[in-house]
């Protein structure tokens, strides 16, 4: 007999391969989707059902994603009235935020989408206009424990993280060599969007990761077919706290390799984005732990070049089966794994050499410079200085790294090159090193990266690519 987790895996496998099924009832003690987070509180989430109509026009079809502070539902747009900047589409994705997500974050995301829309309207024909997920509408829905902000977005196929699973070597997390030209084309597309964000919009994304790059659908009828199939293939579910919790349909099915060239990567999730053209230095912590730039860790101030570092480390993850930086250590007291800024700096040192003294010396005085508003770290502690958030100082008065014992030898980019890039290792290393530099001002810009020989458009394309079904579960 299958255990609860295997039951859910089997249900999702049957859904991907169009095997008819009745709704799977999930055991009450099995954690599903957003419940997996240690910070999950069911009172903060909205718990809608298929068929519910939001804002008198959006009929919910199925849950298709989730995160720490939101769930995402596919919906059918039943009406055409709305704001002037709304472009009607038959289906849309609705991001339903938790009721405790700060309204400041939601408003910031809407402002960023509006800034992008205005910039795009002035750049008719610019290739980057299609490099961002469109925001279509916003409104609130009431819940028993408070209102939930909803953001209506164009429907997308899946995150780049999911597509990567289809492009890897079987039983491996590394990209299949035949798919390198295809992925390099995606990289060019993302860079076009990043260049547009920086130069035409004055926006720093600050949260680039494979889950925040979404792929467009390969054929227009895909989503409609998926929506029509929901009566035959309903979501797995369970009852808890007086509401129904659904397991998301995380895939629209297999991808036809002949149509993969129609898929376009688009940058999404601008809730943490910041303007880069302000008068005051940007100091507060940003970026996913694995992708954090050294100037963020040191508190010396960050700008557009932090996105370039972030992009480089994310790109390594796209090709490789391992992380570029292993930044986790075991807590000596609790035994739990936690992020370590000292380990992160040590690993950067391994790959790039020691930090320049002129870069780390200012960090001594910046450690206690306060930012507002205060933010919480990963453990919930309120912080308003770099030292509060990351610890430190990690360098002495002479600029020497205090944790030199963490630095190993013989750990360069060349030694850990993804196998799929063996034939172009020199060019790829050059491309990576133009992004991964201690000094922010010495990093290449997104525009300069588009001109790098490794991204020559002649070597890109989907011919010969290999796409396999998603791994089971």
Known CATH architecture of the largest domain? Orthogonal Bundle
Lateral strand order in the biggest sheet: 1-2-3-4-6-5
Task: Tell me the name of the CATH homologous superfamily of the largest domain.
Answer: Transferase(Phosphotransferase) domain 1
The total tally of domains equals: 2
Number of strands: 17
Task: Please give a quick description of this structure.
The protein is an alpha+beta fold. It folds into two domains: 4-155 and 219-255, Phosphorylase Kinase, domain 1 (2-Layer Sandwich), CATH 3.30.200; 160-215 and 263-457, Transferase(Phosphotransferase), domain 1 (Orthogonal Bundle), CATH 1.10.510.10. It has helices spanning 4-16, 103-121, 160-167, 180-201, 222-228, 294-298, 304-319, 341-352, 357-366, 386-390, 425-435, 446-450, and strands at 53-54, 58-66, 70-77, 91-97, 135-141, 148-153, 158-159, 203-204, 213-215, 237-240, 243-246, 265-267, 274-275, 328-330, 337-339, 375-376, 382-383.
What is the strand and helix layout of this fold?
Elements: H1 4-16, E1 53-54, E2 58-66, E3 70-77, E4 91-97, H2 103-121, E5 135-141, E6 148-153, E7 158-159, H3 160-167, H4 180-201, E8 203-204, E9 213-215, H5 222-228, E10 237-240, E11 243-246, E12 265-267, E13 274-275, H6 294-298, H7 304-319, E14 328-330, E15 337-339, H8 341-352, H9 357-366, E16 375-376, E17 382-383, H10 386-390, H11 425-435, H12 446-450
Antiparallel strand pairs: 1-2, 2-3, 3-4, 4-6, 5-6, 7-9, 8-13, 9-12, 10-11, 14-15, 16-17
GO molecular function, one term: ATP binding
Keywords: ATP-binding, Kinase, Nucleotide-binding, Serine/threonine-protein kinase, Transferase
Binding site for ATP: 95
